[in-house]
């Protein structure tokens, strides 16, 4: 940034002109606002200089060169007045008379007000921050609160409503978001000083722009326990320094769920912002969502594009909070990401196990990983509709003969007759892989519930890439020697099973588009709960059991 400023001195002059113009544009109309609010604003807010605007006891917002970039953030406005943004804190409580209803108890950052709203000093605190064009009463926030309450999770659930500040245009909402952060900082300060509340109990969840607001709060109180960024916005944040966006230094643990990686048409960001960055379905577009964006440019959105009270559309962008809500539902399926260098390596099956060759796996949700390394990328896939969470199976497919381009589908049946269909991804068009002949090919497959134990058999289908010259005369098939299946997800009650499957009657060839049945190579195996004894070279040939349970341990969440 410094070298850029030295080489282009005119940039600051242009920025100053923009600030001066913005100060006139942001002068609020008094026709629709309470005159007493305006009087308070005039007496309590002050512009110290062209780059600084102060908000009474909250502190000041600086719009200096750190917040400007000629390409990534060419417009750098000052925030609106406090009474325009009207940040409100809502403590969410389930109605005692109507369990299907949610109560929104409004309060201010004063001890008496918080206690009157029902704040419990002995419970943990989750602060939830909505996105651009959203509001604190949004359906996803209500659904998250009901999920937490249903699972008896002991939290104070506080929704931050900054609807008036989150209205278009986008650049003004970004400026206003910094005042929202000051309001939250004041709330935490009051909790700490008046109620002696520990920041080790604070978890901030922010969606889109709300994720960066969480980062601003953490920039002041970086001792808070955790921040979850739900698809943080990319426009005006991509390429900017850490002071402008969510980053790993904002909390003891920062997890980020990417579902709409930033390009010219998306809302998310393709940068690692946390300790753990989870890229679901590699993040460019979520299964079941259209590839066509509703708006070609987020920066051009204004209120005329939306109906009264309407929230900005964005199917892939919104999947982030849907995945998070499902992750905290306390079910037996967990969203587990495998560390990997990038989506290409993940799709090619190079990252297919946990705690192997330095790789590790992590879950997103309520779990906090202390002392985690920063900017580690984790990849996983999901379903195209609820339930989105899928169990993961490591398939080691031993191929004989020539290399092929295609993919396998599996119908898995365990020893208790539970059945699940396992696929590479939810979108078959992106499933084609290079299958190497004469060697093992390892991929991670995904299956909806139920959760399977050791397998009895699998029906295996081969799908070969279509070739225009193979319409009449080519025989498309593949020869499979055996398949080793490992369950990757670690549930709360059991470990990871491994099953070796062999072709029935030794018939290894699978024709294109056809299923072939593979069975457990040791059909006499009756036990699914005892581990196979480790064999030595002298006993290995006499040991026939190939289904085993390994790494048995409890997963702590």
TrEMBL record:
Localization of this protein: Secreted
Q: Which UniProt keywords apply?
A: Secreted, Signal
The Low complexity compositionally biased stretches are 534-545
Biological process GO annotation list? lipid catabolic process
Q: Which residues belong to any copy of the Lipase domain?
A: 54-388
UniProt superkingdom: Eukaryota
Instruction: From the UniProt entry, list the residue stretches annotated as the region Disordered.
Output: 520-557
For this protein, the record's InterPro entries field holds: AB_hydrolase_fold, Lipase, TAG_lipase
Query: What is one cellular component GO term in this UniProt entry?
Result: extracellular space
Q: Where is the composition biased (Polar residues)?
A: 520-533
In alphabetical order, the GO MF annotations are: lipase activity
The main place the protein resides is secreted
Q: Where is the composition biased (Basic residues)?
A: 546-557
Q: Which residues form the signal peptide?
A: 1-31
- What protein family does this chain belong to? Belongs to the AB hydrolase superfamily. Lipase family.
How is this protein named in the record?
Lipase domain-containing protein
